[in-house]
Amino acid sequence: MAPKVGLFIPCYIDQLYPQVGIATLKILEHFGCDVEYPETQTCCGQPMANTGCTNEVGPLAKRFLEIFKSYDAVVCPSGSCVSMVKHHYAEYFTDNPEYEALKGKTFEFCEYLTNVLGVKKLAGRFPHKVGLHQSCHGLRELRLASDSEIVGPPFGTAQALLESIDGVEVTTLQRPDECCGFGGTFAVAEEAVSCMMGEDRVHDHEQAGTEVLTALDMSCLMHLSGIIRRQKKPIRVMHISEIFAECL
Amino acid sequence: MPAHPKLAAAFIKDKDRAHWHDQSLWFVRSKRDKAVNQLPEWELLREQASKIKSYVVSHLPDLLEEFEKNAKAKGVHVHWARNATEHNEIVHGILKQHEVTRVVKSKSMLTEECHLNPYLERHGIEIVDTDLGEWIVQLQDKPPSHIVMPAIHIKKEEIGELFHEKLGTEKGATDPQYLTEAARQHLRQKFVGAEAGITGVNFAIAETGGFVVCTNEGNADLGTSLNKLHIACMGIEKLIPRANDLSVFLRLLARSATGQPITTYSSHFHGPAPGAELHIVLLDNGRSEISGSDEFRRSLNCIRCAACMNTCPVYRRSGGYSYNNTVPGPIGSILGPAKDAKEHASLPFACSLCGSCTDVCPVKIDLHHQLLTWRKEIRVRGLLPYSKRLSMKLMSWMMQAPSLYRFAGKCARSIVPHLPRFLLYNRFNAWGKQRELPDFPKQSFREWMKKNHDDK
Asked: Residue B279 — φ and ψ, nearest 5°?
């Protein structure tokens, strides 16, 4: 029987990047999932948690559990929001077996494709130089890829999926996993540092010959594309699910 | 003092300098990567170091007594200081007793933390920092901007200018070798004339009562060998239980700090030299309070390698002074608020939560999680600005009511695309200063779902 997947679409993707939600849905259905989008979902509470306002997170965490607990899997096209649910909800649920179960069945989109559905090769052709921005929470919270700080064998689910598509050439960066500087409210509170970090990432992709910039997280890409568009750089920005969907 | 965002923005205003600063530190981070990747056992070493330090922090009283007993048995004078004032008074007392007026000091962030230099100067004692970088900032009458490379923010042209003014070197000289030689000649006189040497402590060994000071310039050795009085100042967390444990930490420290396999000098002090006196001042200054906190205890694992600074994308671009704290960067943003949460309330937010510091830390301090915990603490203590508190409250309230969230989203999406540019991009919109806003789509994902998917 097809797994019943609860589609967890972060609030800003719902409102600002519907095409990312649509692409994620298409891919999951393509691989045989029975996908449902629970209408009452809103926000996981990460902006409040990262500002230190835990009182404001509690009710959202509880809602989230109620909405998603009945699915076989919860899948989300954002490493950051998944990391919020898996790593930062514990203080709102003491000894709650339902939450423990939710933690184990909540997945970032590429992680779900690779580790649960066992997808090794994606169809289609995408003849472009693709720059993969390693979003920090997918990298260092969820460990979806190896990072440059830790000593060990290299791996990465997103890169492997991208490279399985005909024609894709993943570009080589000078700093393969430096933060883009989005950081939620950091992007506004520390505007100067945030924008300089973003600009430096964009330059790195430019020198590497990136034609299409992609990532697991649309939030990083919202920030980077804001800079790319302001500076009128010829780099196309796409969420990784959009690349996969375009190849279908 | 202004908060971090303001000081950071001021530093970044000179983009070329900010880039240069970022690249200098990234170079050090890259050297670290090369060095650690040569050790397949690197992660095991980190794990061991973390466990040893956790053991130390949870057994501090016993280990400190053991250290005191063994140090005394070697003829060392051991002093205890509760805070910076006591520390400075003890050091001054020892110097006064020996009628010392000229002191050389090797690098010690602890004496910076206590503001020892100005204290001794007020009491008529000349104190000269002998670490080249620290001496440069001392000549400028400034504190270090980095705990391992105190003058990393200063360009060689500026050092040439400073030396010309203070030491009479040729005007316009920028050759590092020439400038270093001038410093060497000048400092040599200070070494020879000093009546006492002060050092920090990198590792104190409970089992033996001895301690180790790591330098690249040999200035700790020279400063304590040419005279008869050595005062070593250390934080109580600098202990390790056994001499054997040193091998773990000496391998981690220099690789993490600069990418060297080991510091050029690892000077071991086990008791005073014949005819000389050796004093150790053990400083608490808030450390035992931190050791009692489940949330922040692990920050005492720190061996002050500065790898978290070198890797921090914020520190590299905002400079050490933007933190306005003796220890800057990620670890400083934890230690600063522990000392004075109000004064340093902006530091836990000077972080994009990228987590690079946590993964680079040789003693596995979960730095970015502690910074996140500090944000909660700032909120609990009522130090979060009202605007932030209110906006988060409103946002949470809206997110608990899906219909309200849908309505607000719909309104924004139908209004924003029609607004003239000057209403969207102005001084109230920090996002839009250097970035475009996303294009607001006509339809949200949930609206699309309703139309195209659910009714299928």
From this structure: -115, 140
Phi/psi for B63 (5° steps) reads -65, -35
The CA distance from B136 to B359, in Å, is 32
Q: What is the DSSP letter of B355?
A: -
CB contact under 8 A, B26 and A226: no
Nearest residue to B199 via CA among B286, B257, B302, B278: B278
**Nearest chain B Cα to A24, which residue?**
B445
**A229, B436: Cβ pair inside 8 Å?**
yes
Q: Which two three-digit tokens encode residue B186?
A: 């000048």
Judging contacts by C-beta atoms under 8 Å, the chain B residues touching residue A15 are 409, 412-413, 444-445
Contact residues on chain A for B364, CB-CB shorter than 8 A: none
Query: Which member of B18, B376, B409 has the closest CB to residue A15?
Result: B409
Q: What would the pLDDT profile of B18-76 be if each residue is shown by its tens digit?
A: 999 999 999 999 999 999 999 999 999 999 999 999 999 999 999 999 999 999 999 99
Contacts of B453 in chain A (CB under 8 A): 25, 37
CA of A239 to nearest chain B CA: how many angstroms apart? 14
Q: For A91-148, what is each residue's pLDDT tens digit? A: 999 999 999 999 999 999 999 999 999 999 999 999 999 999 999 999 999 999 999 9
Please name which of B295, B371, B273 lies closest in space to residue B330, comparing C-alpha atoms.
Answer: B371
Q: Is the ipTM of this complex over 0.85?
A: yes
pTM: 0.97
Q: What is the CA radius of gyration of chain B?
A: 26
**For residue B75, which amino acid is it?**
G
**Dist. CA B135–CA A92, nearest whole Å:** 51
Q: Shortest CA distance to A84 belongs to which of A103, A63, A111?
A: A103
Minimal C-alpha gap between B337 and chain A (Å): 14
Residues B77 and B9: their CA atoms lie apart, in Å, by: 47
- Per the DSSP assignment, residues forming a β-bridge with B280 are B78, B232
Residues of A in contact with B5 (CB under 8 A): 189-193
Query: Domains along chain B?
Result: 4-288 (3.40.50.10420), 402-454 (no CATH)
Distance from CA of A70 to the nearest CA of B (A): 19
Residues of B with Cβ-Cβ distance to A62 under 8 angstroms: none
Residue A43 CB contacts under 8 Å (≥ 6 apart), including other chains: A10, A11, A60, B395, B399, B405
Between CA A35 and CA A21 the distance in angstroms is 12
Distance CA B198, CA B104 (A): 6
Convert the pLDDT of each residue in B86-127 to its tens digit.
Answer: 999 999 999 999 999 999 999 899 999 999 999 999 999 999
